[in-house]
Amino acid sequence: MTFRAAAAAAALTFAFGTAAHANDRYATPPPVVLSPDLSRPWVMQLQGPGAQGVRSGAPRVVVRRPAGQRQVYQPRAVQQQAALAQPPKPRVRDIDPVYLPQTVAYHGGEKAGTIVIDTRDRFLYLVNGDGTAKRYGVGVGKEGFEWRGTETITRKAEWPSWRPPAEMIRREAKKGRHLPTYMPGGPQNPLGARALYLGSTLYRIHGTNQPWTIGQAVSSGCIRMRNQDVEDLYTRVGVGTRVIVR
Fold first, then answer.
1. Nearest to 127 by CA among 151, 99, 105
2. Residue 125 · residue 115 · CB < 8 Å
3. CA–CA distance from 100 to each of 97, 104, 229 (Å)?
4. For residue 40, what pLDDT is reported?
5. Angle at 35 between CA 33 and CA 38, to 5 degrees
6. Spatial separation of the C-alpha atoms in residues 9 and 35, rounded to whole Å
7. Which residues form the catalytic set?
8. In this structure, how many other beta carbons lie within 10 angstroms of the beta carbon of residue 100?
9. Which among 143, 100, 151 is positioned nearest to 123, based on CA atoms?
10. Per-residue pLDDT, 94
11. What are the tens digits of pLDDT across the range 38-75?
């Protein structure tokens, strides 16, 4: 090949290659395929600031903070101290369902309207006079404070105040518990929502702010009921009602 022919062939090859590269510039490039492990960091960056993704394979969940809100991180020790500073939740204690009010068969022979208290089984019966009675669960006197007898209701009071007897104040003081000489009526008063005073004694049928003690021998001789139960009994009986304690 002569020098002139070689030069012409080289010129044609250069022109063809240049045209091919120029055309490739406008062609659609092939897709770039990355493995999941390599693509994950890029996906995390594309989610932008303030967004958090989940691990590969799980549905994508993005948590966004309101504009202008900063994320505050506290050391574990600070979080534990804050948890301990929270007041404890009140403990909820249930009573045995057998002590909930119900109408039962009763054939004791007392006339309608009489109250009969069974201190052994911890029940109070309001006699209906038709072979049935309304039965309530009660708390009774603890050992050494039991009593039996027949009295009448001489007074009724709503949210009664309480004046502990001097003997009770001295007895509790020996145990390290100091009782007030007077406590006004209210939810914190041990006599609860209602009180039915028995004769000239210091004993009463009354409510309690400790309903979990119903069914137990815990009092100093008084008969205690749940507040909602003594409120119900209060509306059914009046002054002069006969009360038999067995």
1. 105
2. yes
3. 5, 12, 9
4. 52
5. 110
6. 45
7. 206, 222
8. 13
9. 100
10. 76
11. 445 444 444 544 444 444 454 554 445 555 555 555 56
Residue entry with tokens 């709503």 = 158
How wide is the angle at C-alpha 205 spanned by C-alphas 217 and 167, nearest 5°? 70
Q: Two tokens at 41?
A: 């960091």
At 169, list the tokens: 């104040």
Tokens of 227: 């507040």
As a whole number of angstroms, the distance between CA 13 and CA 2 comes to: 17
What residues contact 140, with CB distance under 8 A and at least 6 apart?
117, 119, 122, 146, 216, 217, 218, 219, 223
State both tokens at 157.
């009071």
**Residue 215 and residue 223 in contact, taking contact as beta carbons nearer than 8 Å:** no
pLDDT digits (tens, 9 = 90+) for 203-213: 999 999 999 99
Q: Scanning the structure block, which residue is given the tokens 């966004």?
A: 64
User: Which pTM was predicted?
Assistant: 0.63
Displacement of CA 22 from its chain's centroid (Å): 76
Classify residue 176 as exposed, middle or buried by CB count within 10 Å of its CB (0-12, 13-18, 19+).
exposed
HEC-encoded secondary structure of the chain:
CCHHHHHHHHHHHHHHHHHHHHHHHCCCCCCCCCCHHHHHHHHHHHCCCCCCCCCCCCCCCCCCCCCCCCCCCCCHHHHHHHHHHCCCCCCCCCCCHHHCCEEEECCCCCCCCCEEEECCCCEEEEECCCCEEEEEECEEECCCCCCCEEEEEEEEEECCCECCCHHHHHHHHHCCCCCCCCECCCCCCCCCCEEEEECCCCCEEECCCCHHHCCCEEECCCEECCHHHHHHHHHHCCCCCEEEEC
Which stretches of the chain score pLDDT less than 50? 12, 14-16, 19-22, 38-39, 41-46, 48-56, 58, 61-63, 90-92
